[in-house]
Amino acid sequence: MKKIQYLFVTIALGLVLTSCGDSFFNQQPEGGVLTEEQYAILPDNLTGSIMGIYSRLYAASDHDEFGKRAIDMYGDIQSGDMAMPNDNYGWFVQYDRGYFYSQARSYMWSFYYEIINLTNLCAAAVEDNVQEMLDGIISGDPTEATIEQAYYYGQVLALRGWCYANLLDFYTNPKDEITDLDASLAIPLYTETDMKVAELKGKPRATVAEVYNVIYEDLSQSVTLLDFYGQLHDRKSKLEIDADVARLILAYAMLNHGHSEIIIADGKNAYDIAYEQAVAVIDGGKYPLLPKAELTTTGFSDLKAGDWMWGQDVTVETTTALASFFGHVDIHTYSYAAAGDFKQIDSKLYDEVVATKWDARKNWFRASGTYKYCPDGKFYSPKYKSVTDLEKVDRDWLCDNLFMRVSVAYLIAAEAAYRKSDEVNAVKYLKALCDERVIDGKETDYNTWLSSLSGDALKNAIVYNWRVEMWGEGYALQTLRRLSKTVTLGTNHQDARASKAVNADERCQCEIPTTETRYNPYISNKELQQDND
């Protein structure tokens, strides 16, 4: 029997490694990894497999390990924008103290590489049909089976590109510290071709440039396939990636790539591509910005919201209860926040919002009292909005998981334009977003702010809006690493970090886990130490 081997060594979330002869890889994989023969006999196997991959995005294995939204919290707390003023239960607290401990770095490594492994399995299963699929699309006369396969294959590529982009964000230096992308080592790179290698025990680290090449190729092809499908059929659910979501994954990856001197494709650098893809989403008009009138009415808890592009509909069957984003953040849900383990906006950042005099997003956070700085205007269960009694708060845990909102498109477009020295369009897209965030009667203050946007003031405005608009959505750490070298924190953090400066230094970067260096023969602790030195 031909074997599908594990492509990484720190697999968590229920996958089992067992010794088998000279290899520590499981020759009869269980859980998330199948043999080719097992895969081939699955009914509607590609559809079923992609749904299984998506389920990893919200699977919970512990109370600080519940998929993408837990990782969003890791980054936002590590950056300092999400504050933890106390330590009642211990979850996430090490990140507020400023360190990515081994648990987080191992969990994220396993999370992304497990998904990569599963996407490679799917890609390997259909690789013989890919050219036929593309030919059918180009000819304009594809079969319905080809159309359907293009839809799922496009999602497979998007998910793989998304995983590699996130791994680069967490496990490599900030872009301005990487002088040579072709020489800087990053992470192991696995694709569907590796699925055919018997007894694969790991791979060396690829360069940053090599990983970005795969990210670009995967996501650009994904956009083509999903665009094609979208012209003929409606998207099946917001859990499944469509062409616009793939565009923004690509755009954000290119924004974090930077390096305007490097041509990526068709004479365009990373900022050109980021801008082009983000503007395409905006101009497409499928996802309207959250209007000012609804700024504090939705609780950011319902997948049906018009500005939600990607997310999970949490049901009775899929809820992870206390081990969830709302369990940790919402003071109206029976879990940690309601019991006093608050997640707050950094007090200094909140003061910046108030100081504008025009920004209605200050109403996302409590201004005073026991729950000061808590996000009960942004993340909450609307049914229980007026309840804080622990015995009466939400015990259904059915608030949906947010993965992407269209606000990201406007922020990417503004930042990419700024990086291209196109201040006119940078202000245009920033203004389009902020027009929906103005307090009634404060238009004069707002227009004064708009008129100041040039040079460093424009850059600072972009940073400010990334931090405020996307608070709690997983973008804060990369904003710090990409745009701002130093942020002074407010006073509502753990004692060791309160009122201190946070830099985009090694404390805001994960090291490759020791389990990887122990079992992957191509990566050693000595090699990583030399990198650090």
Explain what you see:
The protein has helices spanning 36-40, 45-55, 68-79, 93-96, 102-126, 130-139, 144-171, 208-230, 243-257, 270-284, 325-329, 347-356, 407-419, 423-434, 443-451, 456-469, 476-483, 514-519, 525-532; strands at residues 82-83, 185-188, 205-207, 263-265, 268-269, 308-312, 344-345, 401-405, 486-488, 501-503. It has 533 residues and is mainly alpha-helical. It has a single domain, classed as Alpha Horseshoe (Serine Threonine Protein Phosphatase 5, Tetratricopeptide repeat), CATH 1.25.40. Strand 4 (263-265) and strand 5 form a beta hairpin. The longest helix has 28 residues, at 144-171. The protein starts with 35 loop residues before the first helix and ends with a helix. Residues 1-34 have low confidence and may be disordered.
From the structure above, extract its key features.
about 525 residues, mainly alpha, Serine Threonine Protein Phosphatase 5, Tetratricopeptide repeat, two-stranded antiparallel sheet, two-stranded antiparallel ribbon, 19 helices, 10 strands, globular, disordered N terminus
- Strand arrangement across the biggest beta sheet: 1-7
Percentage of residues in strands: 5-15%
For this structure, what is the CATH class?
Mainly Alpha
Structural domain tally: 1
Poorly predicted regions:
1-34
> Tally the helices: what do you get?
19
Mean pLDDT rating: 88
Largest sheet: 2 strands, antiparallel
Number of strands: 10
Q: In which range does the helix fraction lie?
A: 40-55%
